[in-house]
Fold these 4 entries.
Entry 1:
Amino acid sequence: MSAFDIQENGDFRIGVFVCDCGINIAGKVNVSAVAEFAGTLPNVVVTREYKFMCSDPGQELIQNDVKEFRLNRVVVASCSPLMHEATFRRATAEAGLNQYFFQMVNIREHVSWVTENEYLATEKAKALVAAAVRRVKVHRALESKSVPVNPDVLVVGGGIAGIHAALTIANAGKKVYLVEREPTIGGHMAKFDKTFPTLDCAACILTPKMSSVKAHKNITLWTYSEIDKVDGFAGNFTVRVKRKPRYIKEEDCVGCNLCVEACIFKEGKFEDEFNVGLSKRKPIYMPFPQATPSVVLIDPETCLHFKTGKCKQKCVEVCERGAIDFNQQEEFKEINVGAIILATGFKTFDPHRISEYGYGVYPNVYTSLEIERLVNASGPTQGEVLMRDGRKPKSVAIIHCVGSRDRKTNAYCSRVCCMYSLKLAHLIKERTGAEIYNYYIDMRTPGKGYEEFYDKLLQEGVHFIRGRVAEVTNWAMVPSEEDKLIIRAEDTLIGVARRVPVDMVILSVGLEAHDDAGEVQRLFNISCSKEGWFLERHPKLAPVSTFTDGIFIAGACQGPKDIPDTVAQAGAAAAEALAMVDIGHVELEPNTANVETVMCSGCKTCISMCPFSAITFDAENWRAEFNEALCKGCGTCVVTCPTGAAQQHLYTDDEMYEEIEGVLHYV
Amino acid sequence: MRYIYYPGCSLKGTGRAYEESVLAVFRALELQFEELDDWNCCGATAYMAIDELQAFTLAARNLALAEKQFADEEEVNIIAPCSACYLVLMKAQHYIEEYTEIGDQIRSALKECHMEYEGRIRIRHPLDVFVNDIGLEKIKSLVRKPLDGLRVASYYGCQMVRPYKVFDHHYSPTTMDDLMRALGAKAVDWSLKTRCCGGSLTGTIEQVGMRLSFILLNEAQKRGANVIATSCPLCQFNLECYQGSMNRKFNGSVDLPAAYFTQLMGMAYGISNRELGLQRLFVPMTSQFSKKEGYQHVGV
């Protein structure tokens, strides 16, 4: 610790506190040199170097110095403001200063972690400190404002994550809007037969929660709907929801299915989305028996009435409640909520992209999701494992890591495939007695009871071959391979190439972010990883928060996850959202805009640009008038103003210029 | 559009039938082309294995020559029918443009002999040119003797589609199948279109190389093919030259002509057998047509 000469220079008395952050910063930046340099800057009266500035002793150091050296400005050079700006502002305030007489310099994420050369790192840190010292002098004393919070919560996505989060919040007495894109809630979990490792029936544990959602007085459920627009900020979001027409009056339909039976199509003819194409449905249909809400819908792409206008409309005839409405239009609902939970889930990898595995070429190559439907009692074969040609397989190969752990597709591990492959192996073995070959790279079974389940499968006599499959073909070398699918792979445990002929191949497809994850990201103003997963605020300590306050994420939209993890995260997101809306108000940064009256020419440009109508025109004095209560701090008026009269707190022109000049003067 | 024709060594030697048929088809399609003046080795096989930089430099000399020959063309299209040439030229171009250090070394080597590579080159396989520049419509319109009833197993080999996936799928390509259909033939559906033909192993570890080509012939024959269409001199050589020894070794019964795809095009256009080099095939096409009327028997 070193204190440098006290300089008395003008009115400003600045203290500069440089943090080692253990070796995070000190390992690359010569912290003593930075502190020593800061001491040479005008108006700096004290500089300190300390191992952990964010620790209690570190904060006390700042507070004592403020008193001892009568500081009126504080600069801390440490980590990202996202980590500790609040900490140091609090320390500044507790020392008796306005908390905005503080400036933070990020010499960790912006310097030590991203610079290889020690000399350059130190020089950059010095330049940034010089900039902050100049900037902090023009800081103004500001008050943060507290605004009331709307207690309602929006949950986007009605899979198990969204269902669990919505129920948790609704049970706490808050109102929840649950918006789902598909005609029914339930998500992927509703399609599964059993869940690993306990082999609970997925429907038995999910459907009670689905009907609770429908019945809950605090939940407004909008299926077949999408979020169209999001405005506002933490505590006060305005959201527009687009409700797609299902051509059925939802409140009148009782789900009796008479219309489906009466439809002019006697048999299903179109690909059934719920059974991932393994069965056919009619143009009017119920997605699946326990669909929630229990309301049918009409697909205008296939319905004769929409396609030709010449249909006898048998469905209308049989519906006693008159629920069918061919004239239904898209509808928009506007809601106000305080917090938003995104639980938009995932999509499975499309194995057409790995043509070596013959998906779409050989009919008996399936995806794992198709097999989930095939083994499901409510699936297309009532749970009997039958191939597309009607035969029961005598041998089955399960190929792991399809679209995972491969730089050509996705480098990451999808986490759930090993376990669901084991589950499917067990179910198929149980129902067909077939020989089952699992081709894996590494078995990844870290979870409660997971390794034991793997062990059980080994004892059941399922074969495990370690090696990534090279190709699935239909060329036979010997008569026993005729009419079979041949798996070619290197068995890496014994170092030989193997050919195994089987009847059926299951591709354990990985999990991917939705195609439109980028659009959702922009809509809600959050961040995405390069793979398209929504980015959490901190991977360890803020796993369900995002960089946008008031927006939380849960489940597989954040990354591949199994059901237990998804539900745990949904609960966490619900708790975070509740904590936010329950307290009743939210502290906002005083980053509102104002106008320097003398400089305003009254051109009115800013008025037309303001998206929140926070600016009016004062005709008497011929100038713009800003309503800071309505201002959301977007900054549009500031960049629009031709004279520079519009200014935004925390980012005024002089603050920005001082900072830039600080750097330029140093270099 | 004008093209530069780069034959490479094989087309002047073992693959003469490929050159004869390629040029015959070019003329039939009225393709404007010139052979590259003063061309040299493309840099394939042994060179590439021993010294990549020298191999790239050899290839780059050809590219520089082509740019000089077509000095006023904005883009110089080089047709390289041999798959090995096609791949090596493309690889050299990729490395020169992608890796500054290699690019600089090669450029300075070229400079020593007053040459320059500017980067106006586009390397093309004749199959790509036929299907994508000329188009199946025109190809179809010139057919005089459709290959009716001929069942063709299109064999692409590896180098045309891997690692550079320029005009077709890297694992299950379809361009040649489409071309064969346009000629009136039936395209055999099989899964070994890009599986290894044995490459140079046939000359080094015969046992392994022969087995690889046998697998291809056996599967194509089993799927009912009358002929395998090839697009690379080495593939063609491997597939047709050892059928007798293969049958003895693997107790098989393969008897399948392996023709260049351009020979089949030429036949459909009614070009004479001699012009297409059909008399050079070791397994004659004769047997495949003897039962059909309207076809001349090909004398070996």
Entry 2:
Amino acid sequence: MIEALNISVLRSRQRLLHHVDFSVNPGEIVMLLGPNGAGKTTLLRSLSGQIVPDQGEILVNGQPIQLIPLSQLSLRRAVVSQSVHMSFPFSTLEVVLMGIQLQNQSRKSTMSMKDQRILATKALIDMQVEHLSDRMFLELSGGEQQRVHIARALVQLWTGCQEESQFLFLDEPTSALDLKYQVYVLRYLRELASAGIGICCVIHDLQLAALYSDRLVIMKHGSIAAEGPSEQLINASLLKDIYEVSSHILQHPVTHKPLAVVGD
Amino acid sequence: MSTTVLSRFNPYQVWMILLTLLLITFVAAIAQGAYSVSWGQLLSWSFLEDWTSPSQDGLILWHIRVPRVLLAALVGAGLAMSGAALQGLFRNPLADPGLIGISGGAALAVGITIVFLPWSTGYFGLYALSLSAFVGGITTCVVIFKVGRIGATTSVGHLILAGVAINALAMAGVGLMTFLSNDQQMRTLNFWMLGSFGGALWPAVLVVATISIPAGILLWRQSEALNRLLLGENEARFLGTDTEVLKTRVIILSALLVGAAVAVSGIIGFVGLVVPHLIRLLWRADHRMLIPASALLGASLMVLADTLARTLVIPSEMPVGIVTSLVGGPFFLWLLMQPHSGMKYD
């Protein structure tokens, strides 16, 4: 389990996070929602160890995050950031290969270059970008790049620590994807979760969040405003509160998940 | 498809091509010079020479030509490797030991030693100058890093701007040293500023080899971490790479390589900048290949440049730094102007 215990983050006298308690359990998908600037990305960055909270503590499988060396932390959690800047011409396959955790001590022997390539190709196939593996990464479209970064995170998890719970953090992983791949990627995340990986994902699409999450966490002004399964959580007055938008809530005809329709 | 010139060969073939190139330049460089030897003679010597009573030709080759060629190769390899690693570290294709001030700092320290501590060069010769070049190079690195540090992390943009400013300062310092020096010191200084392998002997080869070879191997071992760093510092940390440790290592190793090079040959520009570009353009950007391939190509090109410097104006000799800049500068400009050069750095 990854837990944030009463964390606060201050930046130039502004409170980005204010006494937040939050956790991600192995095998569940938590989706973080909220208006721009609500602190979603800050919370994700704190959980992933990128920033150190000014107050409170982050525990990874019960251990304080700052006590875990980076090379060990990377065996337990992978991160897919909103945007990644790449400076030199690397092929797609080479970018995915960077995710491989060669320092993992629990493996009996070091991976051969061939095994690394097989694993990276499998991740590319899983994200349906294997046809791009020899192309230069910088020449790919935004959506393709996003899927390659997810493939890199997959390779990281596969070569990471299998004995402990693993976690995956994604910051708007579907923002550049077309409808087909939005659904494809979120379905894939569901499968990952059922294999035991704890997933925390920042997302803006309420409908997709309701359909593919186990739990929604809605943030506003650096605090958690509401949390729970989508069926219990999403209602017109909450959306009015959070987003200042009028809406009607319908029900998905098959899954019975709540669907918010915007407008008076 | 990735269509670089060398990508259609498998890696072993590329290594063979680069090694063959180095070997050819070696043999050619040993044969050519003010005292020239035919290739046939050269080959027969290397197999038939009686080492207990060498001929005059053999003496010239063994004591003057061979160490000079080896030194050029070592310096070329060192400069190219440090260029490749620094470009990766700064995530900037302009990073070059000359451009960010490491060479300048090293040259200033050498200048100060020549002008103010002339007795030291008398006692320790090359070692004193090598030592001051390292001290100058590493001091520059430390200053660049102090300036580039904001809070707990190091900003690459700041680093590179700090380097440019420090380079300018160091060059002004070298100018001041020239002003303060007497005639003989000025000649030594000029020699350093323009870069030359003239006067290279076996001790110099030994000094550079014992520093550059271990430093180069250690630098190569940072390849995977340098690859990850190209995704950005945060991403590299997410993948388990301690970027602060990496930066310190790369800077120290580069300063060692550049310090050794500057100490024995002065400031030789453009090799550290152009060679890694060429490898990326012709082959690939993966540091695991880029660093050793840059070493081989850098060695070949430096040997070639030094051979030109030795032979173009016989019986006199040009500073090799002028050759590398005269050839490297226009070539680099041409490279930048190619619309499909594969240099996509945004």
Entry 3:
Amino acid sequence: MVRFVLKRLLYMLITLFIITSFTFFLMKLLPGSPFNNEEKLTDQQKFILNEKYGLNDPVPVQYLNYMSNLVKGDLGVSFQYDNRPVSTMITERIGPSAVLGVEATIIGTIIGLILGIAAALKHNTSIDYLSSLFAVLGISIPSFVFAGVLQYYVGVKLGWLPVALWDGPKYHVLPALSLSVFVIATVARFMRTEMLEVLGQDYITTAKSKGLSNLVVIWKHTIRNAMIPVVTILGPLAINLITGTLIIEKIFAVPGLGFQFVSSIQLNDYPVIMATTIFYSVCFIIVILIVDILYGVIDPRIRVAGGKG
Amino acid sequence: MMKKILELNNVNVSFHTFAGEVKAVRGVNLHLEKGESLAIVGESGSGKSVTSKSIMRLLPEKTSEIKEGEILFEGRDLTKLSNREMEKIRGSEISMIFQDPMTSLNPTMTVGKQIMEGLRKHQNLSKNEAKERAINLLKLVGIPNPELRINEYPHQFSGGMRQRVVIAIALACNPKVLIADEPTTALDVTIQAQILDLMRDLQQKTGTAIILITHDLGVVANLSQRVAVMYGGTIVETGTTDEVFYNPKHPYTWGLLSSMPKLNSAEKELMAIPGTPPNLLNPPKGCPFAARCPYAMQVCVDHMPDVTDVTSTHKTACWLLDERAPQVEPPEAALVGGAR
């Protein structure tokens, strides 16, 4: 197990190196420079600014400089926000995004599993059709539609919950709910398919032939096996939410990471773009590792293969 | 006469499909005596698996239905029991072995747990007692190092070993009837022989009555005292294994025996029965085999033949046994070994 994790950590570093390099050169291909928008600056002043941040050097030199700083743990400073260190900008912003993401994932997974299991057990009944309908709607309707509906009815008309801003648990409910709709729908759809698949397996007949009650057959033999593929999709789903979602953050005025990332791209704020990308990648890779470990916990066949590898 | 432990009287099973009602089992009469071994043979789609699953009530509830008839187990009609009552019988009084050991065990549960489940449910054993019994069961079915292997998962076992585990699960609560649905079909030949030996051995030790479902006549000769030949959802011939093998009366049984490979045969090619089984969506009103039978007469197409008693144990449903029918001799190839 330790060897497995160590090996994976090495792969993670390689992956991260490739992602960082790619992003760096792609970013340099973008037209414009961080100071183009500042119309009051003369060419002379722009040149001095570029010189100060090393932007006049050839791109390979900039790349080497950036990478060597990165290895030392220095992510640089923002061009736009008064030379603030990028690392503080991310740590300040990640809190709300992560909390929202985790909440949405937990709500979505629990409700999604229940819906999916119910739909499969009541296959081809109205419960199944309703759950499928909800799943299709949840996947195809963007979350900002739900956000708007929730804001209007729950926030404005009923006045039960605050419409926006970020000031305590009450403020989490609406954005977390809007985000979780997609998770509910995806998990429900997956779980339903997997449950139906497992219910048709021979070992379910074996379990029934032992005289086990339906409840035991479903709980001990079906759900666990049906969960295995669902765990795989949960990882990427969760990380997308945790690293911030631009639209929901904007609608609910949540000071999160997603909004900052998009504006940094618009403004060619190179250090922020790079740092956020690296941060996303690290999160993603770690979650995939966790999912793989979880996989082994649920499925003994993978546990053995992983232990040897 | 020995005591009948299981009796099927005029059992009819149908499946409801989009195309209509498929009459998979049509009027099957069977009985099983205490401790004996009965084989049900027939080709795919003849209704043998459906018959066995209807005894266990393991057919899909929504799409299938036991339309008629009774299944008496020690005098109780299983078709009338509630699901609750049926759960008490499944696994403890009647249990089942399935065809494919690769898929009939839960991949995410240790074999020990899978054996112990039934024990704990039916016999109220404590965890330790159940574990001890599970180890003994694994020993009984010939798995080495049962103390260690009990904590392993099915993927750590070979096909033959898995089938032994499946047998251990089935035998866990000392059932009175064991239904083996093609227990050796998915195994290779040497393992088949081992599993058959094991089953014969276990039957002698435990006295369990066995219903063996198979299309392999070699397996039948090995294990069973009596045979029922099924075709098109009906039983066309029953008798002791000797009677059916050495004095077959039904042309379908002749066909089955002819298509068995023989060591001493000069023929290079295997015989086959021409044609395909009837579509049970629209079952023929006469004998189901009439369309493929070389001896078929008009009456075979129009009317279902009655069951004729050849001896007190040997029964055949064929118009050829009617006194008005022409005398027909079974083909050479259908004669097994020292046949009369």
Entry 4:
Amino acid sequence: MKRIIPMWIAIIGGFAMMLSSFVPLAESAGEMFADVFNVVAAIAFVLGAGSLAKQHLEKLSRRDAGWGYSIITLGSFLITLFIGLGKIGIHPNEQFPQAPYSGSNEMEGSAFGWIYEYMITPLTSTMFALLAFFVASAAFRAFRAKNTEAILLLVTAFIVLLGRTFAGVVLTGWFPDWASGLRLENLSIYVMQVFNTAGNRAIMIGIALGVAATGLRILFGIDRSWLGGGDA
Amino acid sequence: MSSGNFNNTNASVRPWFERLDRIDRRWIFLLMFLAVAGPILWIGVTGKTLPEAPTLAARAVFEEIDHLPARTLVLISFDYDPASAGELQPMATSLVRQCAAKNLRMVFIALWPLGNQVAQQTIQDVIRDDYPALKEGDDFVNMGYQAGNEAVMKLLLTDFAKAFPKDSRGEATSNIPMLKDVKMVSDFPLLISISAGYPGSKEWVQYVISAYNEKMNFVTGCTGVSAPQLYPYFPQQIAGLLGAIKGAAEYESMVNASLAVDGVATPPKYLQAQRRMGPQLVAHLLMVGLIIVGNMIFFARKRRGAA
Amino acid sequence: MRITHKVPRRIFTNHSWKCVATFLCMAMCCARVFAFEISSEMSESVAPVTQTVAAQDIFAENVLAHNAPEQDANAPLVEPVNAATNFNSAATPNAMPERPWFNIEKLWLLLWIVFIGGAVTVSVWLAKSGRPIRIRRIAALEAVDNAVGRATEMGRSILFVPGIQDMDNIQTVAGLTMLGRVAKTAAEYDATIEVPTCRSLVMEAARDTVRASYLSAGRADGFSVDRITYITDDQFGYVAHVVGSMVREKPATCFYMGCFFAESLIFAETGNAIGAIQIAGTAESSQLPFFVAACDYTLIGEEFFAASAYLSGEPAQLGTLRGQDVGKFAVVVLIALGVLASTILVMAPNAAVVGWFLGGLQKVLGG
């Protein structure tokens, strides 16, 4: 029973969503399922917060390696929760000046805004910037001319890397007009718009059919491995 | 498998290519840091930028906005967060600047939780600072973030007010003058998405533009890794495309040229994309160098193996 | 290597009646939805619906008129206000709903779904009736057992990252189906599997999946709920945690199966640095190059969705792969015809039949 009910929910929800694409009158059914998903996801968030607190408290109590980070995680979690729920530093909404908590957390000058501007922004930007370093190390290690395909990949990489910067103009900008198609900046556009587009379309068509087949497997209850497998 | 740390005492007797192949990756990280930091400092001191020749995709973005009559409604979706602001913020700034200069009515939305803050920041930097005559509610409005990803897009197809019942100030959508007659997303002749991933440009194409391709145009700016995925949609579904900081720099140069005033220097905040092309140039050259060195190692090892 | 499966021929299988029941159930559901919708439309929202459609058309005309080249770009736009106001005056509150019961513009899309769904269903039926199914070897999936075994031998854990999206993303569902298989193998080998998740709902689903896998492997006592944890919804907060734990705990094997964005290379490069065997699978084409460059094995696009069927070896599931291939063959034929017709049209612009054919083809493909 624990597998049959979720499976039928998936089947009914899936078909309702599909139907809502074709039958305008059934649009609200699709919206209803989307709303139900959002509500369930919101409820599950409480479980997630509980899991987070539990794992870090356990780590603290066991004094596992890196338990100091758990203090930072739990502390940040509780402080942000307090600031968000308490609406610290927020002025009442202009429309409801008498209601002290009517302002939004996104208002200028709010403590939440301060956290956003001075903590979240630099932290996430730093993490994203790490990509530049990892790309360099991956390029050094992985781009080897092992066979014909790899050589083609290498040549393409050089064209795009140089063509997307001023280096392309410096290196090939002197080409006469009749050979302008061979300038690196033009070649890189050609690579992106022709070869890349063709390859991407092929992958996208394959993915779309894969999604359709997976969806049908789940909708028909053929594939139940997401429920742990086995017979319902 | 790992090319990371190695503590082999015989390292000194290894041939050069073996040592280079097993180099601690932190040396590569240091080189990348220098490749990016050097040009940033140099451009910061000299203020010089590299010239940009706009490509077709970037020109299409500029022209889509440029051809719109004044007071046209434009929906601008901020589908990114501070993490990718380094790559996307310059194009967002230029897009809003061109729309403001053209006196288009801008409706900002965000499908990413932190997209609203990025939108607020852009409004502050461009509209409030440089176009103070534009009034919130009449000329622009920020509808804030709405959770639900594609569900919000689907809702926009039929009911804008249901998808965004109030703006970021708490004002009901029905009370906002410029939205009085907006029923659904197709009431916006132009949709702009600045996108860092999911939900973003691809989902806008799949859920909205595929339904209203003939009624509204769509231009987008995206991160470098997403650009290859979006090229298949250009120019049919996506009328104009700004790919990464390169696309932003091309577009920025066009906007700056169109709004240039003799004797007045362009403020640095409108040169961010062009300034970032310097670090990008050196970083790309470093990567080309690393790939060449990597292949020298590969061939040296191959020759040694064959011998 | 060929994998061939034969099963006894059975026309009305357990699955067949389930499909029929599903359609019946859906029919009832639709009927209920229609009844609800029509009654509510009749009672309160007849006018707004017709208004919306008509106002939209009028506004579209205005916009098209304004986008005409001869229009003065600086002239103020004829606002949609007028269109809607004009319509309001003409709207009759008690008019019958004009909303069509079926969106005719999507007819071809529906026919495509029916075609692909039909191909899949027929292929499943053929597979169940004993027709052998041959599928090519997928190296990444063949390596799953070895990768899990390596972790057991080394006495280290297995890290499974099910992407950073929620359960409404099909890639997450596909990732969890892989998790089910990997967890079962891990349970059989007595290996430890760690699953940090980026969404609470995924955590709950992953717990159920792993629990059921341990149960089916007869190792219920080996399952620990604490190994499947929620970290944070924030993309890079999640990345920081996972990468940190990878560096500290050095898992022997890392699986990345699901929807990934900028974090793909950070995960894969960190896994490479700690010497882990890495198997990735995603349908995010922009992230595939990073996984291919840094991982030992990568499931590319459709391979990722085929993984569950491949690993299960069940004829019904393998049949869906053949159905998928039928769809792909149809697409390839249409592309070839389109390319041929376009080429002929370029060389002979007056070939009316080819133009008519190409127009029809574009209509079929929704172009």
